[in-house]
Design brief:
By secondary structure, the protein is an alpha/beta fold. The protein has 2 domains: 102 residues, no CATH class; 177 residues, Rossmann fold (3-Layer(aba) Sandwich), CATH 3.40.50. It is 47% helix and 10% strand. It contains 14 helices and 7 strands. The strands form 2 sheets. A 5-stranded parallel β-sheet has the order 4-5-6-1-7, sandwiched between helices. It has a two-stranded antiparallel sheet with strand order 2-3. The radius of gyration is 21 Å and the shape is globular.
Length: 313
C-alpha cells in the first residue's frame, strides 16, 4: 500500500448497500477491494498495544524516550496494523504550523541511513531534502521530528535494516534508533520478524529504554476457537466486498480451504481475496466464485503441486 492509503473498514450490511457498492465505478470498486480491512481480535489487541505505548495514561500526554516492538512472521498483518494506527492520527495544521504526531517509516533492503533520514524529511512535510553529509542529514532529520511535534515513530520491517547489512550500515541504523530515543520527545516502535526481539534485548543501550515490551503477531490458531475467529475474519472481509451478493467466504468448507491455503496467516488470505476479487470484477460477476479462488490459488503454489483448493463441489 502506498503512503496515501485509506483503509476500507465499512461493512455493507444490507442488500441495498451491497448493490450500491456493486454499482460504483470500477476504479472505486477496485480500490475498495485493495484496501479492505476487518479489525479481527488480534488486530484490535495490537492496536490497543500501540495506543497504550503511545499514550499510556487515558487522558494524559504522549510518552517519550522508550522503545517497543511488534514482531511476527512475514505477512501476519503487522504492516496493516501499524499503517492503520498511523492513519488514525493524521497530520494537523494549526496557527502554530504543521504537526505530524505519528510518523510511519517502511524499511527496505535497499534503504540506507541517508535514505531513512530523507524519508523522515518527506514524512514531516518537506518537499525537498538538503544536500549534506549523511551524519548531518540524520541530525537534521531528528530536529525535523522535534519541530514537527512527532510523538511516535514507527519503523517497519526492521529486519531489513539490521540483518545481512554491512557492519557500518547496521551500526548507523542502531545509532539512529538511539538518537531517536535520546530526543526524549517521542517513542519508537520497531516492527519486524521474530529475530528483532532477541536482537534489541541484546543491545543494552536500546533495551533499557523502556524494557522493550513486545506485542507478538501470530497466525490464527487451528483449534476450534481459532477456526471460529478465522471464519469471523472471512465473514468480515466478505461483508466489505463491493459485490451485489455475498461470496460465502466463511462457509465452513470454503473457510477450511482458506485455512489450509494460508495456515492462518492473514496476509496470505487477503492477497488471495484481492486477486480473486479482481478476477470477479473483470468477469462482471455478482460475487467471488469458487473458480476465481481456485484459479488464483494456483499462482502461489510450487510447480507440480496439486491445486486441490476451492474445488467446485
Amino acid at each position: 500500500m502506498d503512503d496515501n492509503t485509506v483503509f476500507h473498514t465499512t461493512a455493507f450490511k444490507t442488500d441495498e448497500q451491497r448493490l450500491a457498492a456493486a454499482n460504483l465505478p470500477i476504479i472505486q470498486r477496485q480500490r475498495l477491494i485493495k484496501t479492505i480491512l476487518y479489525p479481527y481480535p488480534k488486530f484490535k489487541d495490537a492496536q490497543a498495544f500501540i495506543k497504550q505505548f503511545h499514550k499510556p495514561v487515558e487522558g494524559g500526554v504522549a510518552d517519550h524516550g522508550c522503545i517497543a516492538g511488534i514482531v511476527g512472521q512475514s505477512r501476519a498483518g503487522k504492516s496493516a496494523i501499524c499503517q492503520y494506527y498511523a492513519e488514525g492520527i493524521p497530520p494537523e495544521i494549526t496557527d502554530e504550523g504543521e504537526s505530524y504526531p505519528v510518523v510511519y517509516i517502511p524499511g527496505a533492503a535497499e534503504m540506507t541511513p541517508a535514505s531513512m533520514a530523507e524519508r523522515v524529511y518527506r514524512m514531516t512535510g518537506s518537499r525537498s531534502v538538503p544536500s549534506m553529509k549523511t551524519s548531518s542529514l540524520i541530525v537534521n532529520s531528528l530536529l525535523k521530528l522535534k519541530k514537527a511535534k512527532t510523538e511516535l515513530v514507527i519503523i517497519d520491517d526492521v529486519q531489513f535494516l539490521l540483518f545481512d547489512r554491512t557492519r557500518k550500515h547496521r551500526a548507523e541504523f542502531l545509532s539512529f534508533f538511539k538518537q531517536l530515543a535520546d530526543l526524549d520527545t517521542l517513542n519508537i516502535l520497531l516492527v519486524g520478524d521474530e529475530r528483532i526481539q532477541a536482537e534489541i534485548n541484546n543491545i543494552d543501550y536500546l533495551q533499557r529504554r523502556g524494557g522493550f515490551p513486545v506485542n507478538h503477531i501470530a497466525a490464527i490458531g487451528d483449534d476450534a476457537k481459532g477456526f471460529e475467529e478465522f471464519r469471523l475474519l472471512l465473514k468480515g472481509v466478505d461483508n466489505r466486498l463491493p459485490f451485489a451478493a455475498p461470496s460465502g467466504l466463511s462457509d465452513v468448507h470454503i473457510a477450511d480451504d482458506f485455512y489450509r491455503y494460508s495456515e492462518g496467516v492473514v496476509g496470505r488470505v487477503m492477497n488471495l481475496v484481492r486477486r480473486a476479487g479482481y478476477r470477479a470484477l473483470n468477469e462482471g460477476a455478482r460475487r467471488i466464485m469458487l473458480e476465481h479462488l481456485h484459479a488464483e490459488a494456483l499462482k502461489e503454489l510450487e510447480i507440480g503441486t496439486k491445486n486441490d483448493f476451492f474445488m467446485v463441489r
